[in-house]
Amino acid sequence: MKKILISGLISIAFLTIGKAADTHILKYGAVPDGSTLNTLAIQKAIDECHQSGGGKVIFPAGRFLSGTIVLKDNVTLYLEKEAVLLGSTELKDYTNMDPFTEGLGIDVGWALLVAIDARNIGIEGAGIIDGQGAAIKAKHILTDTRPEGQRWGLRPFLVRIVRCTGVKVTGVTLKYAGAWTSHYFQSKEIRIEGLKIESIGVAHNDGIGIDGCQNVRIKDCDIVSGDDALVFKTTSEKMACKDIVVSGLRLKSNQAGIKIGTESMAGFENIEISDCHIYDTRNGGIKLLTVDGAKVKNIRISDISMNNVRTPMLFRLGSRLSVFRKGESKQQTGIMDQVSIKNVKAVAADDAQLMPPSGILITGVPGHDITNLKLENIEITLAGGGTEKDTEVVVPEAVDQYPEVKTFGPKIPAYGLWARHVKGLKVINVKFILKAKDLRPAFVYDDVKELVNP
């Protein structure tokens, strides 16, 4: 009884402190007109809230223009209904507090909302964070004449959480980032729930990016993204993606719905994803890729529906072996082991990266097999259209190449499942439904050992 009473008093004390420290950004001179730059006013509100012990920094209805702002310990940004945190369209208003190089070799890291080495932080409410990505790009290209592939890295992410512990993001809408929409790096105890993302209009608009984070829960989010909708990365060798549970997501993307990799230095372990719907993706439904040395182990994906998805599944163990952060070293080829995909029903897009379309691609590299991969209760509907000549196609090894579906094209000699360099593959109740005749076989196995195919 004493323990319960003490616990209750502690909880009440924290609530009282939080309430006492809550503050509105209007008190610090923020102007909700969508054109006045409010960076200093918002930052002052955050700093004083932090210094007083923490609480909520409240954005009332209105449009608040800002450059980079930094969250501090025990502070939650709370956006009321019709409140909009609006990203500046001037690149000079942003700061890169944690530079790194992404998978295509571009230096990145600028962001609108950043937290570095913070504890107990949050972004909550019914409001919107809008990065104005297309407007930033339009202004940027007027003075930067380099090719888009070289200049895009200067554009800001929307949200960057770096080496933080205790992160809660709930209810808000994230829109139109200049680059990645949300990036969580080497952070722990992350809760993301009820989030809505609508981030399209410029390249590299990943939705939720989990990069070397642990103890993560993601639930009931709706994501429409220009790039990968939900992506797990490890751009550093120092911290694995580990102990992650995802459920109840709706995912639409111009790239992949669910992806592990491509940046894949540290491991990916104990990840469970279930009850998700993937639709209208242009470059894959589920893609598991380790190409930079990562150990991918104990991944469970189940109860997934897909509709109009180009190439429903790709599994790739390769040897690109890139490095993304200064001072870190190139690694040896990694592993992919103990992956289970279960209860999936998919309708593949008729127009795919590989024509005619194929359902599932699985490949290691010579000397490095994918091991103990289980596919169970999977049904995929495909367009068909393959010819007898297509069965003679030799698929490139592409050992050190960027791991995309098109890397193994332009055709695959199976319409259903093609597997190469695999040991311990279990294929249980996996079937493919054709809309039109296809003269390729449903299953092709090349250098597959210990196959279980009841």
TrEMBL record:
* Record-level GO BP terms: carbohydrate metabolic process
Q: Which organism is it from?
A: Pedobacter steynii
Signal peptide residues are 1-20
Q: Which Pfam families match?
A: Glyco_hydro_28
Indicate what this protein is called per its UniProt record: Glycoside hydrolase
Query: For this protein, what is any one GO molecular function term?
Result: polygalacturonase activity
UniProt similarity note: Belongs to the glycosyl hydrolase 28 family.
- Which SMART domains does the protein's record reference? PbH1 (SM00710)
Coiled-coil-forming residues are: none
Q: Name the keywords, alphabetized.
A: Glycosidase, Hydrolase, Signal
